[in-house]
Amino acid sequence: MSYKFSVFEKNLLKRAKQNISTIVLPEADMDERVRQAGEYVAKHKIARVVFLTNGKSAHVDTEYLRYVDIHDKVLCEGLADALYVARKEKGLTKKEAKNLVKDPVYFGTMMLHLNMVDGLVCGACHSTADSIRPALQVIKSKHGIVSSFMLLDTPTKYGDNGLVMLSDCAINVAPTPEQLVSITQDTAKSYIDVVKKSPRVAILSYSTKGSGKGESADASRKVVELLDKQKCDFVYDGEYQMDSAIDKTTAKLKAPNGKIQGDANVLIFPNLESGNICYKAISRFGKARAIGPICQGFNKPVNDVSRGATASEIVLIIAITSLQNRL
Questions:
Q1: How far is residue 204's CA from residue 314's CA, in Å, rounded to a whole number?
Q2: Could you tell me where in the chain the CATH 3.40.50.10750 domains are found?
Q3: Sheet of 289-296, strands arranged across
Q4: Nearest partner of 244 among 211, 213, 199, judged by Cα
């Protein structure tokens, strides 16, 4: 299997090769795209891959591809014990823990919790909620909120070689201004870590610099006020409508004195509804490669791929997960 990758994507894969991590794929027995992606990653030594299987077929382990039977009695007992310890204060019983680790997503998450692997990629045939629920319960967040970003690699020159990062498009339904501040800071850092360039962040709304009224526009303006108090070391501004954020001519008309002049490369949405709809519209109508959603804020790398992701997109998410382990 061969895939076509852009210059940026090839660079991502190269960087992952330089810092090899071990990534578990709970859906290896459930989805052909996941198997193809994992085999490609292993073959090209982008990361070490662990396939979780139901034990029905014989497999041969290699240095870069290992098969783990989720029915292995000894391993199941160890993972269940660890899950019980992690969740007993929340009322989880030992019997419930044993039942939960029969689920490949919980199984893989507990492997990550116990440092048997460095990261987890799931979501090809699970909802976002089902993919990250175990991680929210056990891996937990660094600072109280986990969010996500989508990296769009557009076919036309835009921003930094066509790359734009959107957040939050998968996890937080209606974040507060305070939560949006954390999301903005995490996404700016993710842009630096993944793209290796300086972020220019637009806080989005249906209003540009006071042109519209309403609770949502007020909330976006509040985000900027709170960021001002944080003394951030990246460029940001708001509130902006989408066209003002990404089109220089429109920015001159609507926000002539704004810090963002149609050159935003990070877009922060006011809620999940707008972010999710927008990234899918851009990727479909604009024919942009959508990489993600990529989670940010977990104590260890856990990522949820879109159920519509291609095998090559899963390859890229595995590479980014591997890189997140080294940050």
A1: 28
A2: 147-285
A3: 235-240, 200-204, 266-268, 163-167, 147-153, 289-296
A4: 211
DSSP code of 27? T
Burial bucket for residue 309 (CB in 10 Å: 0-12, 13-18, 19+): buried
pLDDT tens column, 139-162? 999 888 999 999 998 766 544 457
Please write the tens of the pLDDT for every residue from 240-266: 999 999 999 999 999 999 999 999 999
Cut 0.85: pTM above it: yes
Q: Specify the 3-state DSSP secondary structure of 204.
A: strand
In three-state secondary structure terms, 213 is: coil
DSSP characters over 67-97: EEETT-HHHHHHHHHHHHHHHGGGT--HHHH
Tell me which of 119 and 210 has the higher pLDDT. 119
CA atoms within 13 A on the CB side of 252: 2
294/305 Cα distance (integer angstroms): 7
| Residue 126: HSE in the Cβ half-sphere, 13 Å Cα cutoff | 24
Residue type, 217: A
What is the C-alpha separation between 25 and 50, in angstroms, rounded?
A: 6
Instruction: Tell me the longest C-alpha to C-alpha distance in the chain.
Output: 66
Residue ranges of the chain assigned to CATH 3.40.50.10950: 7-140+306-324
The CATH code of domain 7-140+306-324 reads 3.40.50.10950
Write the CA distances from 118 to 82, 235, 305, 327, integer angstroms: 17, 32, 17, 12
Stated length of the chain? 327
* Amino acid occupying residue 223: V
- The residues near 184 (Cβ < 8 Å, ≥ 6 apart) are 167, 201, 203, 223, 227, 236, 268
CB–CB of 239/140 below 8 Å? Answer: no
Count of CB atoms situated within 10 Å of the CB of 127: 11
- CATH class belonging to 147-285: alpha beta
Position of tokens 């990727």? Answer: 283
